[in-house]
Inverse folding.
């Protein structure tokens, strides 16, 4: 800790991170051990976080992340969208296809930003808010590949995923994971009406994903 930082705030944030990393919650004793502080300090931290609905405790006394965290999380998407738009616009114009940024939302992939090309006669209508399973479509499969999961997992560094007809008949997609951004799992991709996506487009998508990652760091 430095003179410019708050020890209490630091501990409170550490509590939230510890609770976010577990599905079954943690007891005061467990938190005390993990934080290296006494139980009285943990009680005070939990009481403060409960007042802001960031933590809740069940009947057994186990602490879990509260619904207040969701309200904070809703404000993340507009910030992420704003940071990603320049790279998405350039990608859409270069490729002549609809570009999108997709983030993980539970077990689904959620499109949070979409940019359509300005010069094409037609393109795929892909809307912000569109959801689909992580294991279907280029965007979700790229996220799984970035985790090192699924049939497309990347064992030798990040790459891109090409798909056809998995979400919409006649449409093909390309996507690459956004890597190295703490707290965010996502991918950048394009969708186009074609039988396949040229490999050069996959490389361009991968470059755009790296640009978005840089903008978010």
């Amino acid at each position: 800790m430095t003179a410019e930082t708050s020890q209490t705030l630091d501990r409170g944030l550490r509590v939230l991170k510890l609770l976010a990393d577990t599905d079954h919650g943690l007891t005061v004793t467990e938190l005390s051990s993990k934080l290296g502080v006494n139980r009285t300090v943990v009680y005070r931290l939990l009481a403060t976080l409960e007042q802001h609905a960031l933590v809740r405790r069940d009947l057994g006394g186990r602490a879990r992340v509260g619904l207040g965290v969701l309200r904070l999380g809703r404000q993340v998407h507009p910030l992420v969208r704003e940071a990603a738009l320049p790279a998405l616009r350039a990608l859409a114009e270069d490729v002549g296809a609809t570009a999108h940024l997709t983030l993980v939302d539970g077990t689904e992939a959620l499109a949070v930003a979409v940019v359509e090309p300005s010069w094409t006669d037609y393109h795929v209508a892909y809307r912000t808010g569109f959801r689909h399973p992580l294991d279907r479509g280029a965007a979700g499969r790229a996220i799984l590949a970035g985790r090192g999961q699924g049939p497309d997992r990347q064992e030798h560094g990040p790459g891109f995923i090409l798909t056809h007809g998995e979400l919409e008949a006649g449409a093909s997609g390309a996507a690459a994971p956004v890597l190295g951004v703490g707290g965010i799992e996502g991918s950048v991709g394009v969708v186009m009406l074609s039988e396949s996506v040229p490999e050069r487009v996959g490389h361009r998508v991968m470059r755009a994903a790296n640009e978005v990652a840089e903008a978010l760091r």
User: Anything to note?
Assistant: The radius of gyration is 21 Å. The mean pLDDT is 89. Residues 80 and 216 are 7 Å apart (CA to CA).
